[in-house]
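Mods, move this if it's the wrong board.
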Amino acid sequence: MQAGLGILAAMATLNTRLARDKGLRLAVRVGIHTGLAVVGQMGVQGRQEQLALGDTPNLAARIQGLAVPDTVLISATTHRLVQGYFTVDPLGPQTVKGVTA
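Not the wrong board. Structure tokens:
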């Protein structure tokens, strides 16, 4: 959560400069889900990248797609862990492609 909010704050600072210097504004959407993931380097020698694989990063990506610009959207699983540490606005149940519950 802290990292997601930090991203929003950094984008706000960047947007102040971009608006002044270039007349541009960028937006970001952050989706967070908590769970197990496999992280490692994938690819062939010279063309490797660090990837996170599994249901957790896939669901985080789907949640990110539901977020409106310049917000952090978290899953119910993550909410249970951060409850009382952050102020959240419940959005109610959402339909997430490929997820039944």
